[in-house]
UniProtKB/TrEMBL annotation, chains A, B, C:
Pfam family, one: OTCace
Domain Aspartate/ornithine carbamoyltransferase Asp/Orn-binding positions: 147-289
Full protein name: Aspartate carbamoyltransferase
GO biological process: 'de novo' pyrimidine nucleobase biosynthetic process; 'de novo' UMP biosynthetic process; amino acid metabolic process
Native source species: Robertmurraya siralis
Length: 310, 310, 310
């Protein structure tokens, strides 16, 4: 069975296969199950890009997406996540994509559920497809990971992306530094990389990866606080000027314009922010293919043939 | 015109035809309208399994499901149910599936609306597709209804399922008994079956059909109340041991684990709870086929041919 | 690039082409993009008929509709409309349909966004597809606009429809009069037509176009206020008797029955209210075709061929 829960538990071999498939999809490869295949997206937290990205990926694979609105579901009657997924499995759903506010919501489900779970973000924990799309974007740019310096800057403590990325990038041979407000640094991240002052990180890194300030998780600091953050830790016009030649800007979005990054830099030449979103579709196609191809006990793979056309 | 509003108004002939079609669908039969056909699901109450089940059934028939979210609709501007359905009909919708909190919400609509209405639950009234999927599950198990003893246990007064099932099962020749808290028994049910003590019902019945305790309709009794209910009227591990050889457990779900039924019995060998959900898809395919095939005045059946392949 | 933002900015040539295409669709014409094409509907205000109508139109063109629920999106995290649309574009969406409560929400987006925006209503501003479906309905009835007298009656000040329709109908050669409560008349409308007393408007017009009393925008007047409105300015049974031979009744819906129009007149012989809704689908197919055919810079038109079959 091929859940996709964290990047930490993916071998480098698996990561490379996913990136290869994603790259093929970005170049127009087509893969579709031969029979009608149902999936469902369970988003217990708001999302535009991840949800829409999965939707588009699913439709490009010819999958049937069963609409699931949390606020109109039996979750309101207290139904557990296990029973909800088990129900979807019973009506014929063959894979579920889940975003949930609880860290490692999948810890128990992993063994109990017989259809693949694709984690679309769990609390402050993991967000594997975000990491994978970041990897694809870096690979497209540099053709390698080994020896690259990646600076992850901002709200590291609350970021799913920081943890997922730090782990896998380091395993792939990149050097990681963390920057931003020191009080948001988390000692548990030290195993992946050291803290570095913003001015140094900016000028020495190949990839400047900005994280979103999660206003909904912090005290509301108002406009003044935002301007102060921007000056101290944001990618200002001035800092961008000092970035290394050939280096790129990344951000998982949604962007707080003029906070993490100056408004006019969001779509500047160095920015790969919208390229990341585009790559998200291809990465999600790859992990859906992986999940459905290998399937679970309940999966119909036995009497199913796949058509692949490149 | 073929609305599906209650099982009470279905003849046994009609019930048998629906079960036959549903069984065929469960074995892989395919039926699709030849032209693009639109339907809409109007759920004015939360639901996971009924809504998802209809969605899957509709997609398996190749239907186009027009999304309808009550909370984003003109119902918020005070539009009546008649005008909402009439609007959907005008834009080309050929059948509507409706769940609504008002008992017999369809009483007036039945004559006014020219496209089939499929009732997916009305207040404490009816839930015909739930009854039909229960029938299919029983028929698959025993091959007959005549002479079977069916115990319906729990919150009978508020249950759509109790009424729908009692009526049709009795007509099909089964013996019905009701059990659970006596104060939840309703004299209007006496025409279908008598009240029986839980211990006797459990050991003598071929089908033990548990109903959901609708916490949202009762006073909140807290954990203690739930444990007491479980001991007095729930299917405990001990009671399951005393069930008749070959008898089965059914529950319309969502299940309150360790209230109506012990947690570990939900997926035990006797349990047909998830089989019921699977059968729900086939039954809904059958009633949708019935509705669309016979259509209404406004339906395009006249210049439409159907393809049926078994 | 072919946004559709207002009818005011459409040339008569463009209006005629859209009506021609819409009429062809109403007669069964088929047009589909050859490749899988994604669109999204962003409704920031409640709607049944406009949203469902666009959905049906999109499916009839074979488009993939990416579900977008405002209340489950990153708009909740403060994402701007620009960033939301830009995100959708990045994941592959090729056109967006938007309803928003802010007048001219598209003013800045128009230049920034590289995929077509189809305006499905902006505040008290415009509602071009409603105007176009009104035009199609009138054209089907009379075969011309020149010389027709059209009375627009009711809540003119808050009506998107009044402004859009007045402008384009006048350009097409129709005579416009406005009626209803004088205090709801708006001097800015004088350029399109004069105010006329209800009794005169009713007996002399070819088209009696009633507008919805927007209770959600006015003080709640209660049942009494509604009855008074109906007697003074509504289409009563008595007034309908005095309408000109061959004249028709229109209303953008949802209708307040027995306020703007007597309950039993909603589906009377003169009424084209549900015909309007049906025509909405064809008009939306036509503007979607127009948008996708001409596309934007980001559009894949270059390597795309279209199949048209009439």
């Amino acid at each position: 069975m091929k859940h996709l829960l964290t990047t930490n538990t993916l071998s480098l071999e698996e990561v490379r296969t996913i990136l290869e498939d994603a790259q093929a999809f970005s170049e127009g490869a087509v893969w579709k199950p031969e029979k009608q295949t149902f999936v469902a997206n369970l988003f217990f937290e708001p999302s535009t890009r991840t949800k829409c990205s999965f939707e588009v990926a699913e439709r490009k694979l010819g999958l049937e997406v069963v609409p699931f609105e949390v606020n109109a579901s039996s979750v309101l009657k207290g139904e557990t996540l296990y029973d909800t997924i088990r129900t979807l499995q019973s009506v014929g759903v063959e894979a579920v994509v889940i975003r949930h506010s609880i860290d490692s919501y999948f810890a128990e489900l992993e063994e109990q559920i017989q259809i693949p779970i694709l984690n679309a973000g769990d609390g402050c924990g993991h967000h594997p497809t975000q990491s994978l799309l970041d990897l694809l974007t870096i690979q497209q740019e540099f053709g390698r990971f080994y020896g690259l310096k990646v600076a992850i800057i901002g709200d590291i403590r609350h970021s799913r992306v920081a943890r997922s990325n730090a782990n896998v990038l380091k395993r792939l041979g990149a050097e990681i530094v963390f920057s931003g407000p020191k009080e948001w640094f988390d000692d548990s991240l030290l195993e992946h990389g050291r803290y570095e002052e913003i001015e140094q990180a900016i000028v020495t890194s190949d990839v400047v990866m900005l994280l979103r300030i999660q206003h909904e998780r912090h005290e509301q600091e108002g406009q003044e606080g935002k301007a102060v953050y921007h000056q101290k830790f944001g990618l200002t016009l001035e800092r961008e000027q000092r970035m290394k030649a050939g280096s790129i800007i990344m951000h998982p979005a949604p962007v707080n314009r003029d906070v993490e990054i100056a408004d006019s830099l969001v779509e500047c030449e160095r920015s790969r922010i919208f390229k990341q979103m585009e790559n998200g579709v291809y990465v999600r196609m790859a992990v859906l293919k992986r999940a459905l191809q290998q399937g679970g006990k309940a999966n119909v793979n036995d009497h199913q043939k796949w058509s692949v056309a490149y």
